[in-house]
């Protein structure tokens, strides 16, 4: 957890510290802001001997002073242990025993580290006079990092590239935002990314999917640390307990991610083991008997810190505002890192996720609007619940041959078992109150639903004729096999006076219905090449090409087998960034997408592969010493063989000839003033229509894509005084009206705005940090419908006013 200080002002004649000068770099690396409640009074310390830089960082969590020193002064020195009651200055003097250094008070709350008078001469370093005005700069993986904006990402290029040099729109939702909004599910984070809207089936903890630039993420799903994590592997949704940050890359990303949806890729970056011990325990409690406990622990296993671990756990038990709906889950995620040498490391990871949930498809439409029933009205069956069990095992390693070339490999295996107990509304009879219900009983043990993903990447840096290159050469292979049985039957329920069948009646009916079996085999193989070139005049060029080969096979009882031939495809992408000044980037890009595995239709026939093309132009600005980032992008995305609900049975899909989406998106986040952070988004999508297809579809607007959608969340934390550590804030999520999937495109979900509030308070308890927090969502208790599931008969109901409190202790 290396902390340093940005500089707000200096004495006349001195260069600003963020200029690229050697002495400035030393100061930046060696300046520590010591953050907590302190003064001249004695307090308890218990800091063991360790690297001096780390010891000073630990002292930073227990005092409220500033310490200035050049990084080379500390070097590889070790600290002396500090244990007992001392003033901060006494504690620092004890820590510096036998180091040849001392500390001198230079202002009321500022100390300077310097060689002791009787110490052996060291390299002379002249300290410029500095008035510290900035804030601490944290490593991106620091658990205490409060930043809303991170300057780099790997998702857009699979190389560690500054966002300002990337010719694509990408939004990173960091850990601090996840904590402030108390994000538990992916949708909680993606609410603050422009152009991404919630898909349905999110209620009841069953699935997490979304619309991205107009197109579904279903069924291709998402990515986890750059590895494929298809939606079919995500029954039960995804818990964010072990997620460091959520990165959303907009538009086609086939070049790096193969079968990704053309609307964009969401990559979940997991928490990695750290060399500095950290422990966190949090208890959340909310409306409708919501309880969730999380644990995060990390640190070294061996004294030489070549073996590191991280352990994340989450347990949840909750009811719902929906009648008879409840869920529970246990999530465990241990990870071990083995640092074999300074150039070679290996990571072993495991996730176990098990729980019960009720599939809640919301309410049907009556006419052109959602049925006028109470928000609590549930039109399914809650007993017995569906059950999911997922096991993920993975290993990844990297080896740096030298400072320029690195080879990496990632392997992930996911086994996903489900026991589906679902009752799905499929329509309302002519009487306006009798709802037809489709019951689906399915079973697939984990060993019958296995997915394997491999990717190998070689990254190199080299120069040609004065041009700097970052070359990526890689390949990936994905294979999934699913074999399950299911039983289906139908019934009805009264919309206004529902009487549920109950477990016994359902079991009896299911026992008298034939069992059908279905199997699916999907696999793809890809090779890709990408080059990022730094050109003269502050230009950055990216160009690449991918080759894909995919095939799939589907069998279902009573229907002919469907086998797709081996499908080959080449997908290019390229972009150019011009950075006339460090704070501004102008960019343009062209990308193509290929989804060879596209699912099956009602008849069991495999759908034709999807292809897509996109043009994107935009600008980015990075202000306040890289603490604030904004992106404005215009895009035009066209997709062939776009997938929509099959009118014969909306549980299945069909394709149309061509669809087009175009619009403007804006994302902004970061620190505006010290202690004042914000994240916001806005998307204007005037064009989202079928352009070529059946007459009933042409010029009809896409379902689930509002013309206007935006969000804002902002917080302010007091930086001094008795109430230092008090944070308060809030925000709003706004959506204009949207259509559901229906033959005539006639069902409209009204627009809405929900207001959310936050307050929290953090303070020191010995060496620990205690944080209490309260979030209020939908403060004004707005009735709204955020999405629909594939048809007019599965309209999701928005939650009423809810409260979420938490208590977290960290040390």
Structure description:
This protein is mainly β and 811 residues long. The protein has three domains: 4-137, Phage tail protein beta-alpha-beta fold, CATH 3.55.50; 152-268, TonB-dependent receptor, plug domain (Ferric Hydroxamate Uptake Protein, Chain A, domain 1), CATH 2.170.130.10; 269-810, Maltoporin, Chain A. It has a 24-stranded antiparallel sheet that branches. Strands 13-19-20-17-18 form a five-stranded mixed sheet. A hairpin with a 2-residue loop joins β39 and β40 (649-673). It starts with a strand and ends with a strand. The model is unreliable at 1-39 and 120-135 (pLDDT under 50).
Q: Helix and strand layout, with pairings?
A:
Layout lengths: L3 E2 L3 E2 L11 H9 L1 E2 L9 E5 L4 H9 L5 E3 L2 H4 L7 E5 L1 H8 L5 E7 L2 E6 L14 E2 L4 E2 L14 E2 L7 E2 L7 E4 L1 H6 L5 H5 L5 E3 L11 E3 L2 E2 L5 E3 L2 E3 L13 E8 L3 H4 L6 E7 L7 E9 L3 E11 L6 E13 L6 E16 L2 E14 L7 E2 L2 E2 L15 E15 L4 E24 L5 E11 L4 E16 L2 E28 L8 H9 L4 E20 L3 E18 L2 E5 L3 E15 L2 E12 L14 E14 L4 E19 L2 E25 L2 E17 L15 E10 L8 E10 L2 E2 L8 E2 L2 E14 L2 E10 L24 E9 L1
Parallel strand pairs: 5-8, 17-20
Antiparallel strand pairs: 1-10, 2-9, 3-5, 4-6, 7-8, 11-12, 13-19, 14-15, 15-16, 17-18, 19-20, 21-22, 21-48, 22-23, 23-24, 24-25, 25-28, 26-27, 28-29, 29-30, 29-31, 30-32, 31-32, 32-33, 33-34, 34-35, 34-36, 36-37, 37-38, 38-39, 39-40, 40-41, 41-42, 42-43, 43-46, 44-45, 46-47, 47-48
């Amino acid at each position: 957890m290396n902390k340093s200080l940005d500089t707000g002002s200096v004495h006349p004649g001195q260069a600003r510290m963020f200029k690229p000068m050697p002495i400035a770099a030393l100061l930046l690396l060696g300046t520590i802001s010591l953050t907590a409640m302190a003064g001249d009074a004695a307090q308890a310390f218990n800091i063991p001997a360790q690297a001096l830089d780390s010891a000073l960082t630990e002292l930073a969590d227990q005092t409220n002073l500033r310490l200035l020193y050049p990084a080379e002064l500390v070097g590889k020195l070790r600290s002396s242990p500090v244990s007992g009651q001392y003033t901060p200055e006494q504690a620092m003097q004890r820590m510096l025993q036998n180091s040849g250094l001392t500390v001198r008070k230079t202002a009321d709350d500022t100390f300077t580290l310097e060689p002791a008078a009787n110490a052996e001469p060291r390299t002379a370093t002249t300290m410029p006079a500095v008035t510290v005005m900035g804030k601490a700069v944290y490593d991106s993986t620091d658990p205490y990092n409060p930043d809303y904006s991170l300057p780099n990402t790997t998702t857009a290029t699979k190389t560690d590239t500054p966002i300002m040099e990337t010719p694509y729109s990408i939004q990173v939702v960091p850990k601090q935002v996840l904590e402030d909004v108390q994000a538990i599910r992916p949708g909680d984070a993606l609410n603050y990314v422009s152009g991404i809207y919630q898909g349905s089936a999110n209620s009841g903890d069953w699935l997490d999917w979304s619309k991205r630039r107009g197109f579904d993420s279903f069924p291709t799903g998402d990515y986890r640390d750059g590895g494929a994590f298809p939606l079919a592997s995500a029954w039960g949704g995804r818990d964010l307990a072990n997620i460091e940050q959520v990165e959303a890359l907009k538009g086609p990303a086939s070049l790096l991610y193969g079968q990704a949806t053309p609307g964009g890729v969401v990559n979940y970056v997991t928490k990695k083991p750290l060399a500095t011990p950290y422990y966190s325990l949090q208890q959340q409690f909310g409306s409708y008997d919501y309880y969730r406990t999380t644990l995060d622990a990390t640190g070294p296993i061996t004294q030489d810190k070549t073996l590191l671990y991280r352990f994340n756990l989450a347990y949840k038990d909750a009811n719902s505002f929906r009648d008879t709906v409840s869920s529970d889950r246990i999530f465990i995620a241990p990870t071990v890192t083995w640092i074999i040498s300074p150039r070679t490391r290996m990571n072993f990871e495991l996730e176990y996720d098990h729980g019960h949930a009720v599939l809640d498809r919301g309410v049907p439409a009556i006419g052109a609007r959602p049925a006028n029933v109470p928000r609590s009205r549930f039109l399914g069956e809650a007993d017995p619940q569906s059950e999911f069990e997922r096991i993920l095992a993975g290993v990844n390693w990297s080896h740096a041959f030298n400072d320029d070339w690195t080879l990496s490999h990632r392997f992930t295996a996911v086994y996903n078992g489900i026991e589906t107990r679902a009752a799905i509304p499929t329509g309302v009879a002519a009487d306006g109150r009798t709802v037809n219900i489709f019951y689906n009983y399915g079973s697939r043990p984990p060993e019958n639903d296995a997915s394997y993903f491999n990717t190998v990447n070689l990254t190199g840096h080299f120069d040609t004729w004065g041009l700097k290159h970052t070359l990526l050469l890689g390949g990936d292979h994905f294979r999934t096999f699913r074999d399950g049985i299911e039983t289906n039957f139908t019934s009805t329920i009264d919309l206004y006076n529902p009487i549920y069948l109950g477990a016994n009646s359902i079991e009896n009916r299911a026992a008298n219905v034939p069992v059908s079996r279905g199997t699916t085999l999907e696999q793809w193989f890809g090779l890709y090449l990408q080059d990022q070139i730094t050109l003269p005049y502050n230009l950055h060029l990216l160009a690449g090409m991918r080759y894909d080969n995919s095939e799939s096979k589907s069998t279902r009882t009573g229907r002919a087998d469907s086998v797709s031939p081996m499908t080959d495809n080449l997908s290019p992408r390229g972009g150019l960034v011009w950075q006339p000044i460090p704070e501004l980037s102008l960019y343009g890009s062209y990308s193509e997408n290929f989804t060879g595995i596209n699912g099956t239709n009602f008849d069991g026939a495999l759908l034709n592969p999807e292809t897509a093309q996109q043009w994107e132009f935009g600008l980015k600005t990075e202000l306040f010493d890289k603490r604030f980032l904004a992106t404005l992008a215009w895009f035009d995305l066209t997709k062939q063989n776009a997938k929509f609900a099959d009118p014969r049975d909306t549980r299945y899909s069909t394709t149309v000839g061509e669809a087009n989406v175009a619009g403007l998106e804006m994302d902004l986040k970061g620190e505006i003033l010290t202690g004042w952070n914000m994240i916001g988004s806005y998307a204007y999508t005037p064009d989202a229509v079928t352009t070529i297809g059946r007459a009933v579809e042409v010029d009809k607007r896409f379902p689930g894509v509002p013309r206007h959608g935006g969000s804002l969340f902002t917080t302010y934390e007091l930086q001094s005084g008795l109430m230092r550590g008090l944070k308060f804030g809030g925000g709003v999520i706004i959506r204009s009206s949207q259509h559901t999937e229906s033959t005539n495109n006639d069902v409209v979900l009204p627009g809405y705005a929900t207001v959310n509030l936050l307050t929290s308070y953090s303070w020191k308890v010995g060496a620990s940090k205690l944080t209490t927090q309260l979030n209020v969502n939908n403060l004004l208790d707005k009735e709204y419908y955020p999405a629909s599931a594939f048809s007019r008969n599965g309209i999701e109901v928005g939650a009423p006013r809810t409260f979420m409190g938490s208590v977290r202790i960290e040390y």
